[in-house]
Structure formats: C-alpha cells, structure tokens
Amino acid sequence: MTTSNELSRCVAQFDPQALPVTAAQAIVRQWATPVSTVERVSLADALDRVLAEDIVSPIDVPAYDNSAMDGYAFDGAALAAANDGSVTLAVAGKALAGHPFADHVTAAQCVRVMTGALMPAGCDTVVPQEQVEAASDGQSVRFAAAALKSGANRRRAGEDLARGAPALRAGRIVRASDLGLLASLGIGEVAVRRRLRVAFFSTGDELRSIGQPLEPGCVYDSNRYTLLAMLRRLNVDAIDLGVVRDEPAALEKALLAAAASADVILTSGGVSVGEADLTKQLSRALGDVAFWSLAMRPGRPMAFGRVWSGGRAGAGDPALFFGLPGNPVAVMVTFYQIVRDALLIMAGATLQPAPVLHASSAVSIRKRPGRTEFQRGTARRNADGRWQVAPTGSQGSGVLSSMSEANCFIVLAHDQPDVDAGDTVEIMLFDGLI
Ligand code: AMP
Ligand code: MG
Fold first, then answer.
1. What integer pLDDT is reported at residue 14 of this predicted model?
2. DSSP helix/strand/coil, 284
3. Number of alpha carbons in the 13 Å side-chain half-sphere of residue 372
4. Helical segments of 68-142, H only
5. Which residue segments constitute the domains of the chain, with CATH numbers given?
6. What is the Å distance from ligand 2's center to 244 Cα?
7. Using 50, 70 and 90 to split pLDDT, how confident is the model at 1?
8. Residue 202 Cα: closest atom of ligand 1
9. 326 alpha carbon to ligand 2 midpoint, in Å?
C-alpha cells in the first residue's frame, strides 16, 4: 500500500511551492490503477466503453473474394492471350451480391457481376462495365486488354481483416467505426471494464445552487456543471454530491460518503492558501493527502491523494482524491491537464497523447519562466494553411467566458519566456481533447 510518506517522498525532490506540471502528471499516473471488474455488454451498448480484452478476428473479412466493381468477371489469363489487343468473351450468366453464379466459368466466358458479388469459380479479374462494348444481343462483350491487369477489381478474402489477426486491442475506447468493425466480424458482445465511478462536490459557503436566491456575496455553483459535463464526455459514472458548506463535519461526511461510493473523488474550492486549513485538516485525517502548489497557471493550489471511507488510511475503501481549485477556469485546466489521464488509466484505457499543433502567435504574450501556462486561445487556419492563434480576452482564472470563447489551450512550457508576435507556440485544440 502506498502511504502518505511515499506520496510526500515523490514530491520532496521538487520545490514544494512550485511542483512542475510534468512531475504532478507523472505522480498522478503512478497512483492510478485500472478497475479490475469486467462485464460483457452487447455491441449496441459498447460505444465509448473500454475494451477489457483483445478482439481477434474469428473470420476473414471479407469472407470470400468478391467484385469491387459493376462489370464482368473473367479469367485474367485471357488478357495475355488477346491477339488484336482486345478480348471478346461470351456472357455465361450473372452474379449479384448475395446471389452467386453457380457454374464454373471457362476461359472463353465471363459473368456479369455487381459490386460485392462472389467471384465466380475460374474468375480472378473484373472489367468495369464502362470499359466494355456489349454485343447487341447481350450474349458477348469486347474490351481492350491494355487497360487492365490480371487480378484487377477483385477484393481478396481477408483483405480487411484476416482470420486470427487482432482487430482491436484491450484498452481501446470503442468508437463508431469499431462498432461497425465488430459487427462485420459477427461479434455481438464484448468484454469491457466496468465504468469508473467518480463522485464530485463543490465546497464554499458562498455557493448557491440554481433556483436559490443569490444574496449579496454569493455566486451560483458553476463548477459542478462543468465537472459533470467533462466527466460525461469521458463516459464515467458521475455521482453529484451537491454543494458542501465550509464546515468540518459537513466536509467529513461528504468525503466519507464519496469514498464509500466511488473510485475517485473530485472537489472544487477550499484548497487555496488561507482557506485550505479546513480541507487540509480533514483530508489528512481521512487518508493520505498532499497539498500541492503547482507551477502552473491557472490552477496553482491542488490537493491529491487518497481518502478512505473508514475515516483513516487503510480503513474501508480507498478513493483517489483530487481537490481542485475553486476558480472555474482553474477547475477545467487542472481537470484536463492533471485529472483526465488518471481517470482514463483507471478506466482501463490506453492513453493517447492529446493532439498538439504548432501555431504562430498573432500577438506578443507575457510569460513568466518557471511555470506552465495554459492560456485560452482562438486558433484559426490562415489562407496558406498554417495555424495562427491569439489569446482570448481576459485570462483571469475566474473568467469562464474566456474558456467558452476559446477553441484551444495555448501551452506555454515551464521554461518558456515571453512570446513575440510571429513566434511558434504549441496549441491543444479542444476538439479531440474535450
Ligand atoms: P476557493 O478556491 O474556494 O478559494 O475559491 C476561489 C474562487 O472560486 C472564489 O471566488 C469562489 O467563489 C470561486 N468558486 C469556488 N467554487 C466555485 C463554484 N463551485 N462555482 C463557481 N465559483 C466557485
Ligand atoms: Mg472556497
């Protein structure tokens, strides 16, 4: 079992006031272990689930050689034998998709075929119908030999997937094309990991839920909706535990309930310096929790560790705990940059690196070395096909509209200094990430 000592040792080698983002990501990944329960679901329910086993193709796809075109199937040897450069063949019959031609075809014959039709016995080549001249009685066709190679316009059995070949790997998050692929193999059910359960709540005496009056000094709780949405996109089981007051007893109750019901707990608020004491005392008492000051903007303060449903380390069920900052943009940035990979690992998924592009900065950007910044940006492609990006409006960590307006993060690396207009920067497009 990993203890709090181990967690603090992981962090000890870094400046506690400025834990680099890459170090935090590595620590979090190390603590994330996949759920082990596997269940079988029908294909129609498998979208966005994580495969628990490799899928090996039980058949050849396609299962038989077939025509790739509407045309005439024949023995390709006739091409080499063509004397005046053209081939004339008698039409012996026809084959449609699902309606094969039953007889053997001789060297002097061909068969009218439609796309997908089984290649008749004795045929290995298809001449497209556009290339033939049919006799007026329809009994024979003529075409130029030069335009074709033997074996042309034939799809081979197993060309898409050969029997015994791995079609999809364990850890794959099932996409639309995968459902089709599995169906093409005749597979109606797959083994997937059980869905990860993630409980979340907001903390803060100033928070009001939608429908409540907004007294002076209060704000509506938006983080819960952002978190819910981000969790849904990852197809986890999201358990909304509401708003919890800044009160030790209420926080303790919520954390214990969350640890009992979920694999992961996400909270927002209450981890910043000055305010954090409450959460700090509590989550230390409930498990192994470290308080980080990340070298990151937005999203500096964060708590990470384990909370046990029994109220102390080792008692009851553990849950991985992420105490996110309260500021709405900081919540989203820490979720995508720190939490997301841990959730995917725990769900059993094989991590795919987030898509990163290079773009030219339209303006100069101030950047302090010694922290990673995730500025909200609007990227577009210029007429020359290159990406250009500019930060969106106010970059305050409470300004959620900057996130709504943006279509990417501008990722300014730890050691990077100020950016000049025209410099190349890395961007992470939200599409594909979110
Ligand atoms: P905290 O991290 O608790 O100090 O909160 C930092 C800032 O984020 C404060 O202005 C809070 O009012 C705001 N905040 C905290 N939680 C939420 C929430 N759930 N929804 C919207 N704003 C929040
Ligand atoms: Mg607060």
1. 74
2. helix
3. 22
4. 77-81
5. 4-37+196-346 (3.40.980.10), 38-60+159-193 (3.90.105.10), 66-155 (2.170.190.11), 357-429 (2.40.340.10)
6. 10
7. very low
8. 19
9. 6
